[in-house]
């Protein structure tokens, strides 16, 4: 997903998420939210991950999703879909399911600390697990569809902002069925946009959450920013799209959220499968 060049430019190619390139060692985290992905796509991402994590009620979400595809995870015949790690305060996951998955090889770590979300704690536990297993992760893909709970949405963004402290210099990408969201750190970024998203004028946005962005410039957007200042209560770049361009460049002096719609991309992948 992310590549840092010698010139200080960070290149982003979102198709690597779905290509499941073996060169990109990544982990998958499934939170307690619905899973709306076509099974061929989600299974491919899961099966090629170095580490798979389910978080509290996300464990039931995963078990139920598999059941919808005709797979009974708990019968012991589908070890490739057993999570490597299960974390959370476990207030949304039955002890019976946990014990069954433990017997099938899952490492279960209960994290009762209520000062942090289960998502936040899962990143911290993932870091420790990867270190113990000597796995050098490059990315973490977090499956989390949004909901009407605005506090949950903001809480997830908050976790993105502090992900460096939780898991180190590993990029964390939030994946919903209709969007991708991640943090752009200060510097220059080049984001490759699949042609199908350009052709469909799919939405995208740059959001200065938490602190102002004092100077940000872009190319490749329909409404570009030119040494602009952005802050909540002032200018933000929401409901933007692409200017017939397959590359968006962003230069920013501060951390900023990049978010983009992917509906046409998922539809095209489903039609190919």
Characterization of the model:
There is one protein chain. The chain has helices at 15-19, 39-47, 58-68, 95-103, 118-132, 150-161, 163-167, 195-199, 263-272, and strands at residues 2-4, 9-13, 26-30, 51-55, 85-88, 107-110, 139-143, 171-175, 179-184, 187-192, 204-207, 213-219, 228-230, 237-240, 247-252, 256-261. The longest helix has 15 residues, at 118-132. The strands form two sheets. A ten-stranded mixed β-sheet has the order 6-5-4-3-7-8-9-16-11-14, with helices on both faces. Strands 1-2-10-15-12-13 form a six-stranded mixed β-sheet. It has 273 residues and is α/β, with parallel strands linked by helices. Helix content is 30%, strand content 29%. Residues 187-256 form the Thiamin pyrophosphokinase thiamin-binding domain. Pfam families: TPK_B1_binding (PF04265), TPK_catalytic (PF04263). This is Thiamin pyrophosphokinase 1. GO terms for molecular function: ATP binding; kinase activity; thiamine binding; thiamine diphosphokinase activity.
Task: Tell me the CATH topology of the largest domain.
Answer: Rossmann fold
Number of strands: 16
- Average predicted local confidence, pLDDT: 92
Termini separation (Å)?
22 Å
One letter per element, helices H and strands E, the order comes to EEHEHEHEHEHEHHEEEHEEEEEEH
User: How can the largest sheet be summarized?
Assistant: 10 strands, mixed
Number of helices: 9
Strand content: 25-35%
| Proportion of helical residues | 25-40%
Biggest β-sheet: strands ordered side by side in the sheet: 6-5-4-3-7-8-9-16-11-14
- Total individual domains: 2
The CATH architecture of the largest domain can be named as 3-Layer(aba) Sandwich
* Strand-pairing-aware structural class: alpha/beta
The CATH C-level name of the largest domain is: Alpha Beta
CATH superfamily of the largest domain: Thiamin pyrophosphokinase, catalytic domain
Uncertain parts: none
């Amino acid at each position: 997903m992310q590549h840092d060049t010698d010139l200080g430019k960070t290149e982003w190619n979102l198709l690597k998420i779905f290509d499941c390139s073996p060169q990109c060692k990544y982990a998958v985290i499934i939170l307690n939210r619905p899973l709306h992905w076509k099974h061929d796509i989600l299974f491919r991402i899961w099966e090629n991950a170095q580490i798979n994590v389910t978080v509290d009620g996300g464990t039931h979400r995963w078990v139920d999703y598999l059941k919808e595809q005709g797979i009974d995870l708990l019968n012991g015949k589908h070890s490739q879909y057993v999570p490597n790690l299960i974390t959370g305060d476990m207030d949304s996951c039955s002890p019976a399911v946990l014990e069954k998955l433990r017997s099938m090889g899952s490492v279960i770590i209960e994290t009762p600390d209520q000062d942090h979300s289960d998502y936040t704690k899962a990143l911290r536990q993932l870091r420790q697990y990867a270190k113990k297993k000597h796995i050098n992760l490059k990315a973490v893909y977090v499956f989390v569809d949004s909901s009407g709970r605005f506090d949950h949405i903001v809480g997830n963004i908050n976790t993105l902002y502090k992900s460096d402290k939780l898991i180190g210099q590993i990029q964390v990408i939030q994946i919903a069925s209709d969007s991708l969201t991640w943090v752009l750190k200060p510097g220059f970024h080049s984001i490759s946009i699949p042609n199908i998203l350009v052709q469909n004028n799919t939405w995208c946005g740059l959001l200065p959450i938490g602190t102002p962005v004092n100077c940000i410039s872009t190319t490749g957007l329909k409404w570009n920013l030119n040494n602009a200042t952005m802050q909540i209560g002032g200018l933000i770049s929401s409901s933007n799209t692409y200017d017939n361009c397959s590359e968006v460049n962003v230069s920013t002096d501060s951390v900023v959220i990049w978010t983009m719609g992917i509906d046409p991309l998922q539809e095209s992948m489903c039609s190919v499968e």
